[in-house]
Design a protein that fits this description.
This protein has 111 residues and is α+β, with helices and mostly antiparallel strands. It has 3 helices and 3 strands; from the N terminus they run αββαβα. The chain has a 3-stranded antiparallel β-sheet with strand order 2-1-3, with helices on one face. Helix 1 packs across helix 2.
């Protein structure tokens, strides 16, 4: 049941982002319990990746939910995106460097 709610919200979020011409770097999951206690969990996307399409939003939201373990009875589930950026315009690209400490491109440089 929770997965279906998250799926619906991920699709709705995708449509709202598309209409606004935005994408975001941080996914936000908000959970409210029967006693009205509310928690939020955030997940930032890896460099060069943003949340826009409904499937990656759903997959990350589901992982965030599962990381919470056993939860009291839920009253509300909310899904959002933060650190918004325009879909069009400059974007940070990821360079294919090796992991830190390995013999990557900088180790081969010999002036």
């Amino acid at each position: 049941e929770v997965l279906e709610v998250l799926r619906y919200q991920a699709i709705q979020l995708h449509h709202r982002l598309l209409e606004a011409g935005l994408h975001g770097r941080t996914l936000v999951l908000k959970l409210r319990f029967a006693d009205f206690t509310t928690i939020s969990r955030h997940a930032s996307a890896p460099q060069g990746v943003t949340y826009f399409e409904s499937q990656p939003i759903l997959e990350r939201a589901w992982r965030l939910f599962q990381e919470q373990g056993t939860l009291p009875q839920l009253r509300l589930i909310g899904l959002g995106v933060a650190n918004l950026l325009p879909l069009q315009g400059p974007r940070q690209l990821v360079l294919p460097f090796e992991e830190a400490g390995s013999a990557g491109p900088s180790a081969k440089f010999d002036p």
